[in-house]
Structures are given as structure tokens and as C-alpha cells.
Amino acid sequence: MFRPDERAYADSHVDPAGRYAVRFAAKEAALKALGLGLGGMAMHDIEVVRDGLGPPSLVLHDEAVEVARVAGVTRWLVTLSHTDHVAQATVVAL
Q1: Sign of CA dihedral 53, 7, 42, 33
Q2: What confidence tens digit (pLDDT) does each residue in 6-54 have?
Q3: Which Pfam families does the record associate with it (predicted)?
Q4: pTM to 2 decimals?
């Protein structure tokens, strides 16, 4: 479900659970933005990335690239937020 860089980022924090949870939420939101449900495609094909300078973004891999192309998606708007108990992500496909 998580790509190597996502795991490395989450695991580099004292409490990685929130980082994993918010990435799961972003992947779920991206699937919904593409008109799919949780079973519509492998979550591993959607990667949540941060460059440290701006908002998070998505990088698509494998099947997700083609699904987004067919849907006409060329850009993503992504927000992430989490606490010790809640993870929330908003993803808009443009």
C-alpha cells in the first residue's frame, strides 16, 4: 500500500502512525477523485510526496497514470492534516 519513500518518511518520525494514516486518507481521496472506490486500483500506485517547501502532492505510478490520463487529470491539489486520533486529507483532481 505504501511506497518505499512513504514508509521511510513515516518511519523517520517518533510516532509514524499519523503519517501513515494521513497518507492512507490521501490515497483514498485520490481514488474517489478519480471516480473509483477503495477496490478500484492498488493504493501502491498513488504516492504522497512532499518537497518540504510547498504543499504535498501526488505522484502516480503504473495503472494510476493511465486512469488519470483517461480522466483528463493533469494536476492535483492536496491537503493533509492529522492529530493523535484523526487523519484527514482533501484531494482535488484537476
Answers
A1: negative
A2: 999 999 999 899 999 999 999 999 999 999 978 878 999 999 998 878 8
A3: ACPS
A4: 0.93
d(CA 39, CA 24): 13
Q: How many helices (H) and strands (E) does the chain have?
A: 3, 4
What are the CB-based long-range contacts (under 8 Å, 24+) for 22-28? Answer: 22/80, 22/81, 22/82, 22/87, 22/88, 22/89, 23/48, 23/80, 23/89, 24/87, 25/80, 25/87, 25/88, 25/89, 26/56, 26/58, 26/78, 26/80, 26/89, 26/91, 27/1, 28/89
For residue 44, count CB atoms less than 10 angstroms from its CB and return exposed for 0-12, middle for 13-18, buried for 19 or more: middle
pLDDT number for residue 87: 96
Report the CATH fold assignment for 4-93. Answer: Ribosomal Protein L22; Chain A (3.90.470)
